[in-house]
Specification:
alpha/beta; Rossmann fold; seven-stranded parallel sheet; two-stranded parallel sheet; 7 helices; 9 strands; 15% strand; globular; binds adenine
Length: 283
């Protein structure tokens, strides 16, 4: 396994960066890219087997990582997580709050329990992770946080719980950017549109058919890649983004800007998909 990042090799040398939900999808790609750039990545999630598998992939790069189990909805677990990571690593330079979850359903069928579960994981979990990162690690040393949104600029029919939670994360990101600027903490977010990621495997076949139709309505006429999402997260973590805080970056092939009032003929002129896992990408 190798990874060809577009950033320079030692960009994150001597840094410890935590990635929640690092066992699959965008979290895995981000963790691997950061490790390829010299970071010690702390993989956080609920399923240790998935974290261990990514840790082994990172070892193949010749990089170090560690794994910590944590349910980000549980306050005590989050507090213990930061205490344990700090005991092991001394410092935490960056945090990627990628972990989250949702399910497709028309709003009228979502129970209070189901709604709360999604809000708790995505919004409350992200808040707890940010708060503990600040209180335990970043208040005195600074640091960088990247949160995960979704492209919900025109609402998100079929996922009202997650769309509402992500809207909350966007505002939380802006608020904390101001509150924690005095500590040298930057906090931003990314808002992926339709990304070809392992997360899509969890959707039923009907949803997969629906996704094929959605692609036709994306100006770029394709899904984004995990690498195209990871690269933006990595940029936001890097010193190149040192004057950016409270911002949300859409990674969506312009899908949030287009409405069906403007016809887009079939084409294959979108920029070539970037995939850092392909060795000949630059050729
Ligand atoms: N990934 C999805 N849900 C999660 C949770 N509650 N805690 C940690 N990682 C997760």
């Amino acid at each position: 396994m190798n990874y060809r990042s577009i950033f320079r090799d030692d960009l994150f040398a001597k840094q410890t960066i935590m990635v929640t939900g690092g066992g699959s999808g965008i979290g895995r790609a981000t963790a691997i890219e950061l490790a390829s750039l010299g970071a010690h990545v702390v993989l956080v999630g609920r399923t240790m087997e998935k974290l261990t598998a990514v840790s082994e992939e990172i070892a193949q790069l010749g990089s170090e990582s560690s794994t910590f189990g944590c349910n980000i909805r549980e306050e005590e677990q989050v507090q213990a997580l930061f205490a344990n990571v700090l005991a092991a690593r001394g410092r935490i330079h960056g945090l990627v709050n990628n972990a989250g979850g949702q399910f497709l359903s028309p709003a009228e069928f979502i129970s209070k329990k189901g709604f709360h579960a999604v809000v708790e994981t995505n919004l409350t979990g992200t808040f707890l992770m940010c708060r503990e990162a600040y209180n335990q690690a970043m208040r005195d040393n600074g640091g960088v946080i990247v949160n995960m949104l979704m492209e919900n600029w025109r609402g998100f029919p079929g996922m009202v719980h997650s769309a509402a939670a992500r809207a909350g994360i966007e505002n939380l990101t802006k608020t904390l950017a101001v509150e924690w600027a005095r500590s040298g903490v930057r906090i931003n977010a990314v808002a992926p549109g339709l990304i070809e990621s392992s997360g899509l495997d969890n959707y039923p076949d009907m949803a997969k058919q629906f996704i094929q139709n959605v692609i036709k309505d994306i100006p770029f006429k394709r899904m984004g890649t995990e690498s195209e999402t990871a690269a933006v997260i990595v940029f936001l973590l890097s010193p190149g983004a040192n004057y950016i805080s409270g911002e949300s970056v859409r990674i969506d092939g312009a899908s949030s800007l287009w409405r069906k009032t403007w016809g887009i003929e079939e084409h294959d002129n979108a920029p070539k998909p970037y995939n850092g896992f392909e060795q000949d990408w630059f050729v």
